[in-house]
Description:
Subunit structure: Interacts with ribosomal protein uL14 (rplN).
Keywords: Cytoplasm, Repressor, Translation regulation
Number of strands: 6
Pfam family, one: RsfS
InterPro entries: Iojap/RsfS/C7orf30, NT_sf
Number of helices: 4
Family: Belongs to the Iojap/RsfS family.
Amino acid sequence: MNTETYTLGKQIATAINNKKVVKLDVLDVAQLTPLAELFIIAIAANVKQTKAMADEVEECLTSYGRIPIHKEGYQTSNWILLDYGEVIVHILDEEHAQFYGLSRLWQDAIRIEF
């Protein structure tokens, strides 16, 4: 993983942690999928918090001149996806996180601690 991707991942993780995340997984998926180098999976207590986390990430990265390539899920806010190219952010409420089990699905990925 290059320095720019690591820095971007750290900025996102910090922004999410500012909103009292229930659980945060930063996964190096570069060897498992061509989609991205990092997946960041954040679990929020409720849909209000998922939206607050996504807004915090966007606000933080916009200040660095980064905007998502794609985003979806704001309508229901139970699973918000922010695609920054090399880093894809998944923000889910607890119910949907348990149902979909993304961290379990990507259990072979290398976990990164910031």
